[in-house]
Design goal:
Shape: elongated
Bound molecules: adenosine-5'-diphosphate, magnesium ion
CATH class of the largest domain: Alpha Beta
Oligomer: single chain
Number of strands: 12
Order of helices and strands: HHEEHHEHEEHHEHEEHEEHEE
CATH architecture of the largest domain: 2-Layer Sandwich
Largest sheet: 5 strands, antiparallel
Mean pLDDT: 87
Number of domains: 2
Low-confidence stretches: none
Distance between the termini: 86 Å
Strand order of the largest sheet: 2-1-5-4-3
Number of helices: 10
Length: 437
């Protein structure tokens, strides 16, 4: 066999195997893109940032790129800010808090206009881009591709990929794939934006709902105070009539004045309890006894129960472990659930019972369940109880349960509600218990 022929065959073999390798690589990358796009659409809002960084790593490693950075639009003066990045070990990281205007107004303008920028070496850049070249000399890369990140036609950021080892041309097939990556990341940033807006709305809603709850609470307190005060007034009037009249019955006057003393004490008691309820917790995340927390609320709840002709039972298991958190906020949760329980009992119903039960579940959880004999959860709201403005009441705000959930989640707890098998519904929340030393 001729020497030349062997070489030729070897070359053909090599070409075939590198073609096969490329095909294999490309298949692997398509799978990776599928996975990335799936994962990005499922990741919860608060984990999107972490997921972006994880996937930048996967992409960089799969494509033999050295560094990739996501830039999010900041302001007209700053341009884009580097928000996520990943670099192979040994490759310089971007300086912290980098903004694009400081690197290059030209590159920033191109990105803002939605134009991709690609170069094989800093030598290819426009001559006047001196500060950009200086930056690249210090922090790299050699070859760079910048793709705009767009949401619905508006530029929200940029995605850059860098190669650090000498001059390098970007193959069109690679650029096409990286465009898909840019689309996926733009989608993720869009979801993050929606998530942040939603969180802001929820926070605003919480403030509004708290205010409404304060109104309810104030009405309850006013009602409770009104009873002893009216009694005092009528007794004082009676004594005055007795003193000024002809028939002064000393014994009756003393009895009336004792009632006055009793009622005044009751009023003072109510005020003391209310004060305790609103006292600024010195340590907002102090240890709390659920039993004590319920007893503080008891007066308020009982007077409301009386008003609505509901029999209220409160059972707190002895020796419950403590929980940690903000007392007033957690009392608000109980109040929200109990007021809902009262609301759920139709005015003409003969079974009018609400039971509050605090128990320890397993060793790590304390549970408070509020069970009523009301009409049960309406089908029309069953899946949406904890969403804002969901209500079946003529004067409902539909925010009590949302507020309750927000508070509990902040405390590492959760809340759920279900109709009972027989009558009414049970709402229950669970908080992490503090382990006893
Ligand atoms: N104990 C309960 N029994 C039946 N339905 C309830 C109960 N608690 C809440 N719900 C339902 O959930 C809705 C939302 O409750 P909530 O967020 O507190 O708002 P609101 O009390 O202003 O309606 C109520 O309108 C009611 O339909
Ligand atoms: Mg409510």
């Amino acid at each position: 066999m001729l020497k030349g022929e062997t070489l030729d065959r070897q070359r053909r073999g090599k070409a075939r195997s590198s073609k096969a390798r490329r095909a294999h690589q490309s298949e692997r990358f398509e799978t990776l893109l599928d996975e990335m796009s799936g994962a990005m659409s499922r990741v919860p809002g608060h984990e999107i940032d972490g997921a972006i960084e994880r996937w930048l790593r996967e992409i960089v490693l799969a494509l033999e790129i050295d560094r990739s950075t996501v830039w999010e639009k900041a302001s007209a003066e700053l341009g884009f800010a580097a928000t996520h990045w990943w670099a192979r070990p040994g490759i310089p990281k971007l300086p912290r808090k980098m903004v694009s205007m400081r690197i290059s107004p030209w590159l920033t303008a191109e990105a803002l206009a939605g134009r991709p920028v690609m170069y094989s070496s800093p030598a290819d850049l426009p001559t006047q881009e001196r500060s950009l070249k200086r930056f690249l000399a210090a922090h790299g890369p050699e070859a760079q591709l910048m793709l705009p990140l767009e949401i619905g036609g508006a530029v929200v950021g940029g995605l850059t990929f860098g190669k650090f080892r000498g001059r390098w041309n970007w193959p069109p097939a690679l650029v096409r794939r990286l465009r898909v990556v840019a689309q996926i990341i733009a989608g993720a940033l869009d979801r993050k934006r929606t998530f942040i807006q939603g969180r802001k709305l929820r926070e605003e809603v919480t403030v509004a709902a708290r205010r409404a709850m304060m109104g309810q609470l104030a009405a309850s307190i006013a009602h409770e105070l009104n009873q002893p005060l009216s009694a005092v007034l009528s007794n004082v009037n009676a004594v005055r009539r007795m003193i000024s009249g002809a028939s002064f019955d000393r014994k009756e006057a003393v009895a009336a004045l004792s009632d006055v003393a009793e009622d005044t004490k009751r009023a003072a008691d109510i005020i003391r309890r209310v004060r305790a309820l609103f006292q600024d917790n010195l340590s907002p995340n102090g240890n709390l006894e659920i039993g004590a927390l319920l007893s503080e609320l008891e007066g308020l709840l009982r007077s409301e129960a009386m008003l609505r002709r509901v029999s209220l039972r409160i059972e707190a298991a002895p020796c419950l472990p403590s929980v940690t958190g903000d007392r007033v906020q957690l009392q608000q949760c109980v109040l929200n659930l109990v007021l809902n329980a009262f609301d759920s009992i139709p005015p003409d119903s003969t079974r009018r019972e609400v039971l509050i039960r605090a128990v320890q579940e397993e060793s790590e959880w304390v549970t408070v369940a509020v069970r009523d004999t009301g009409r049960g959860i309406d089908d029309s709201v069953a899946g949406r109880l904890f969403e804002p403005f969901v209500t079946t009441k003529a004067n409902g705000m539909g925010m009590g349960l949302l507020v309750t959930r927000c508070i509990l989640e902040r405390h590492g707890g959760r809340v759920c509600g279900n109709s009972n098998a027989d009558l009414g519904a049970t709402f229950k929340f669970t908080l992490p218990a503090i382990a006893k030393p």
